[in-house]
């Protein structure tokens, strides 16, 4: 059984490009790039800095801690073995929803932006 949680307005995220949300005690970093939405664990897999304060550039998010660059589609760090964990994400009626109970080693496919 899936447990999708409504966390943000798509229009707001598309303007800001990134947003920190929390589900229960869990901080989740949302990113918007090239028309798609991605959800990652906010704590960087390297040393735990907040990825939500990173910079989105060329399909990657660059961590503010030590500038590791993570591919938004896969979570894979450039030139490293580490992968930033992520969450399934979907768009429903202009709202961003995540499954905070389904942290994965790497994000699943990005959410298609199907508007109703
Ligand atoms: S904490 Fe993110 S690169 Fe070091």
Automatic annotation (TrEMBL):
InterPro entries from the UniProt entry: Rieske_2Fe-2S (IPR017941), Rieske_2Fe-2S_sf (IPR036922)
Molecular functions per Gene Ontology: 2 iron, 2 sulfur cluster binding; metal ion binding; monooxygenase activity; oxidoreductase activity, acting on paired donors, with incorporation or reduction of molecular oxygen
Keyword Iron found: yes
Keyword list, A-Z: 2Fe-2S, Iron, Iron-sulfur, Metal-binding
Domain Rieske: 4-98
SUPFAM superfamilies membership: ISP domain
Pfam families: Rieske
Record-annotated membrane-spanning stretches: none
UniProt entry tagged with the keyword Plastid: no
Protein name: Rieske domain-containing protein
Species classification: Bacteria, Bacillati, Actinomycetota, Actinomycetes, Kitasatosporales
């Amino acid at each position: 059984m899936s447990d999708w949680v409504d966390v943000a307005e798509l229009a707001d995220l598309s303007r800001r490009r990134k947003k920190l949300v929390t589900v229960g005690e869990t901080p989740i970093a949302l990113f918007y790039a090239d028309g798609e939405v991605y959800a990652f664990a906010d704590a960087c897999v390297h040393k735990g800095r907040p990825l939500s304060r990173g910079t989105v550039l060329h399909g990657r998010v660059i961590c503010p801690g030590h500038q590791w660059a993570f591919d938004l589609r896969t979570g894979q760090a450039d030139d490293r073995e580490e992968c930033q964990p992520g969450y399934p994400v979907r768009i429903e009626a202009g709202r961003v929803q995540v499954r905070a109970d389904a942290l994965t080693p790497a994000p699943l496919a990005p959410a298609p932006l199907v508007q109703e």
